[in-house]
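Worked problem 6 (solution included).
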Amino acid sequence: MQSFEGIAVVTLRFVLLASSALLFAPSAAKAQAERAPAIQLEEVIVQGAGGTGGVVSANGYVATATRSATKTDTPVLEIPQSISTVTQTQLEQRKPQALLDALSYTPGARVGTYGFDPRYDAFTIRGVDVTQNAVFRDGLRQIGSPNGLFRLEPYGLEAISVLRGPAGAIYGASTAAGIVDLISKRPTETPFREIEVQGGSFGRKQFSFDLSGPANADKTLLYRLTGLVRDANNQISAIKDDRVFIAPAFTWKPNELTKLTLLAEYMDSTTGGTAAYVNEYGPYTDRQGSLLYKSIGATRVFGGDKRYNDFRQQQGRIGYEFEHSFGEMFTLRQRARYSALASNQQYVYLTDSGLTKERTQGVSVDTSLETRLNTGPLAHRILTGVDFSYLHYRGKEGYGGVPVGYNANLGYRTAQTQTLVGLYAQDQISWQNWRLTLGGRQDWFSSNFEAGSAGVVPTETKQTGNKATGRAALSYVTDLGLAPYVSYATSFVPNSGTVLSGAVAVPATGEQIEAGVKYDLPGYNASLRAAVFELRQDNAVVYEVVNGYNRQVQLGLRSQGFEIEGVASLANGLSIQASYAYNDARILKLTDETVGNRLTSIPYHMASVWLDYTVQEGPARGLGLGAGVRYVGSSLGDNLNRPVLDNAPRTLLDASLRYDLENLDPRFKGVRFQVNATNLLDKVEQTCTGGFCYFDEGRKVIASLRYRW
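Solution. The predicted structure is:
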């Protein structure tokens, strides 16, 4: 434990020293800086439906405003909630290959709980599993089923907003840990074109393109077309990483008061049906040498079969964002999306094989009215709205033995239809330096679940209910850029599928209290954020393995801790993102023998630092160097907290290098060469979660050549 705490302390000192260096620079240097012409980084605005604002405004690594937290254009400093943003600059420099890669430097986000497993973007925030119910796309809930989760192509993203803490008051169905809002690329008024080729580890070959600009002379019609084709493998030779992705977008803006944006996507991807290594069981004694249990551990033997291991998923979505302003007082917004996916998963594990087919579709619609008015000295920004979501999936499963393919008979069928309707209201009240946010929502839900063998009348289970959620938060925004805040919020989310007993999973509810402080350093493009929190969630759905048998259960948990994050992009070419998180997650309700235990795979300590420097002058001008360190503390491999399953702490290194070739020869204007490496030292250790053990992903190196004009 000493070494873990030491690393945490070093990280905290690093963030504090960095901020101190900026705050307490010598007065002569400050005076010289004040007399010198200001050097500003280019502000990148992710263009959303807003007539004057965007979904996210960012300056390098530093997000300045976002619509994700409140559904209104609100400065990040004034949002009384923990929020982190992965900006476009960060996405371009780190080139993440999956959502987990993009979130790996975000405080409170635990990625890699299942080691290397490319099938799903499984992760936790503040100890809560958010894989199923916290991922949103462009402010709308991203529908999903037990085996049908939308895959993400990071190249199609403009930014990622991570809201930590309940957001049910305006978003409805979501976890107590918050939401992750994936923001799609949108059309731009300035012409933008790029093509890129990639190659790298495991035979990777990829071609991508991104084209945008006005479609007519008066710029009332804008377009964007983003896509890629990839042929690749993975560190397990039986697992493919093939993908075809295309995402068209169009914006019609007849005047400054009205905007309509159409967003669509189609992706056909193939990965592995299983990434599991053979786990071995054997007798062992506890640390005192007295009790005898069964131990579990991963071997280096892949448990699948290359001949029968394809997991193909075809997914698509189409929707729109509409906004119209009625003068300065009223703004009407509506977002709608239809989504569908079809998955076909083949897998083998030891002597058993399986086939799962699932069809999932859903509709999400959110309509809101923003009203701006004053009552005496109080300024109000009132948001009222209604949203609707519909989910339907149908699955077929078959099991058999080896030889492979024996299980062609899909003998077990499941189906579920789920609808949600929510009414919500939020008031952001400003008085002098005070900011008070009050929000409330009422949701009504219904669910119809069917299960049974083919040719037999299925068993039908119906659920109906309603739930109120809310948020109250207060902050004080000083003229010095310092903003302390407190907040209380609740959450609610219906769960899809069944649990261990065969019953339909009941809805999960949660609550959190949080206190924090945000600080935008005056005169610098830099921000520090810190928060302490305690949350509880009842009936959270988790997976675990007991003596080799997989099961889905619902538990109650309590999570408390604190987080600190610092981000900066300075005029000298240096950018930094540093964070530390402490998290104590405990089981409140599962079984008698697990109550009070630490939640599986959630470490006390996590810390990360990413530094990037771009040479500004001289022969090396345009050379960019980036390096990152991610520390994950020790954790426990199952909810029984058996010591044999302890996960050792680990430190992982990432790096990047890029160069704009126009600095070598003007004829190469717009050409950039870049190399990115994750887990640079190829440190691969065992990770156990829920009673089953995996291995981390090894080193991956990707080289790219991009031409932008």
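Discussion: Residues 654 and 678 are 4 Å apart (CA to CA).
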